[in-house]
Design a protein that fits this description.
- The protein has 476 residues and is α/β, with parallel strands linked by helices.
- The chain folds into two domains: 279 residues, nicotinate phosphoribosyltransferase; 87 residues, Aldolase class I (TIM Barrel).
- Strands 13-12-1-5-3-19-20 form a seven-stranded antiparallel sheet. It has a six-stranded parallel sheet with strand order 7-6-11-10-9-8. Strands 18-14-15-21 form a four-stranded mixed sheet.
- The protein is globular.
- The mean pLDDT is 95.
Length: 476
């Protein structure tokens, strides 16, 4: 990835706001901002948190170069005192966040920033950029992996990604979501995610014939002998030539890849031909504009597939390429006390939850499955008891008593006064954690269509605070 200074990779208004706070004398007032999202992409049951590692890297390296200062001075809208502040900038906020790989739901503060108003406001754009993108791809990847029903999924989208960073970080997010590897070579170097690949159609075309191309490939790569059989004709030449090479050279790893045509029909026929030739151990890999819907359909139709290569529809989240995370002021400190703030809107879904908050997930002690999430104010005790009542914040008559549960605070302290205090897990640990957390979700939440609604409830105290502020704001 590009290693240039990215301090100015931000919406311009973040800088005008920062300068305004500085000039107004409120720059160092302590503020709380929440990052959350309003709906799950593809109308799914849940999303997956990702991108925290890059948030940490960004904040640990955030500084303004002399070139940055000169550029802003030339804009002729920033005071010299503010530019001098930027020259000596040091990040000093506290941050809490939900770990990467955690299933998350709309309305939950998956990241909270506490610190000087000017700093907390300024980092909004990059936090949203990093978490929105990777959470989107991790969520899409997990849908595809679940559709594959235990078969391997390789991320093949590098050449279709929307830029260099989108390719590399998209592959990272796809791995968190459950992909077994990626075509993006640099990801193995940078993150340890296994780089995978087969052969190009051009390889087959360069040789005098398909057989010669297959034989040379098998000689060069016997431990990874996946032959691309659809350059000319899958059933009339591709499979027969692959079988011939397998018989002659008997490579220890045998596979074919089909990248076009009717996947269900071709894989059924290919499987029959390979088995009859004595190569039941030969794997079948398919690709070609796949997504969770196509994968689910071909498997329901009896397609014989061992693994999938998924490209453009994964790396771009083509079906819904926006993760609608937002970043909103939740509170400020006044004389050492937290004064809650909230956004009021005629669009009900845009009304925010006020105050400094925690997110608890309630797990059934008997089954280990999730029961509900509860957002509380930070000073409240964790949900507990044999008759703990949860209720729908919008339809308050919908209530339920819960018992025999364990409450887990989902959020971890990431930064303390600008210093990272979080023990970062490896990418493999994140992927394993993600799989384990998804295993705690009920099957009804995993449906691609019309998943069960998972309630994110508010504590009684937070709900009353929300109502009180709404009523106060609406006084004529």
């Amino acid at each position: 990835m590009d290693t240039k200074n990215i301090a100015l990779l931000t919406d311009f208004y973040e800088l005008t706001m920062a300068n305004g706070y500085f000039e107004s004398g409120v720059a160092n007032d302590i503020a709380y901002f929440d990052l959350f999202f309003r709906r799950v992409p593809d109308n799914g049951g849940f999303a997956i948190m990702a991108g925290l590692e890059q948030v940490i890297d960004y904040l640990e390296n955030l500084s303004f170069s002399e070139d940055d200062i000169a550029f802003l001075r030339a804009k002729d809208g920033f005071s010299e005192a503010f530019l001098e502040y930027l020259r000596n900038f040091r990040f000093s906020c506290d941050i809490w966040a939900v770990p990467e790989g955690t299933p998350v739901f709309p309305g939950e503060p998956i990241l909270t920033v506490r610190g000087p108003l000017m700093q907390a406001q300024f980092i909004e754009t990059m936090l949203l950029l990093l978490i929105n993108h990777q959470s989107l791809i991790a969520t899409k990847a997990n849908r595809i992996v679940r559709a594959a029903d235990g078969r391997g999924v390789m991320e093949f989208g590098t050449r279709r990604a929307h830029g260099i960073a989108a390719a590399e970080l998209g592959a990272r997010a796809a791995y968190i979501g459950g992909c077994m590897g990626t075509a993006c070579t640099v990801c193995e170097k940078d993150y340890g995610i296994k780089a995978l690949g087969t052969m190009a159609h051009s390889w087959v075309q360069v040789f005098p014939g398909e057989y010669e191309a297959f034989r040379k490939y098998a000689e060069l790569y016997p431990e990874n002998c996946t032959l691309l059989v659809d350059t000319y004709n899958v059933l009339k030449s591709g499979i027969p030539n692959a079988i011939r090479v397998f018989r002659e050279l008997d490579p220890p790893s045998k596979a074919i890849r089909i990248d076009s045509g009717d996947i269900t029909y071709l894989t059924k026929r290919a499987r029959k031909m390979l088995d009859e030739a004595g190569f039941a151990d030969c794997k079948i890999v398919v690709s070609n504009s796949l997504d969770e819907w196509l994968i689910r359909d071909v498997l329901l139709q009896g397609a014989c597939i061992d693994s999938f290569g998924v490209g453009e529809r994964l790396i771009t989240a083509k079906s819904e390429p926006v993760f609608g995370g937002v970043y909103k002021l939740a509170a400020i400190e006044e004389d050492g006390a937290i004064a809650p703030k909230m956004k009021i809107s005629e669009n009900v879904e845009k009304i925010t939850n006020p105050g400094f908050k925690c997110v608890y997930r309630l797990f059934d002690k008997t089954t280990g499955r999730v029961m509900a999430d509860v957002i509380t104010l930070d000073h409240e005790a964790a949900p507990a008891g044999d008759d703990y009542v949860i209720f729908d914040p919008a339809f308050t008559w919908k209530r339920k008593k819960l018992s025999n549960f364990t409450a887990v605070n989902l959020r971890k302290k990431i930064f303390d006064k600008g210093v990272c205090v979080y023990d970062r897990p490896s990418i493999d640990e994140i992927q394993a954690y993600c799989a384990g957390q998804i295993a705690t979700l009920w099957d009804e939440l995993l449906r691609f269509e019309n998943p069960q609604n998972y309630y994110v409830d508010l504590s009684d105290e937070l709900w009353r605070l929300r109502i009180e502020l709404i009523e106060n704001y609406n006084v004529d």
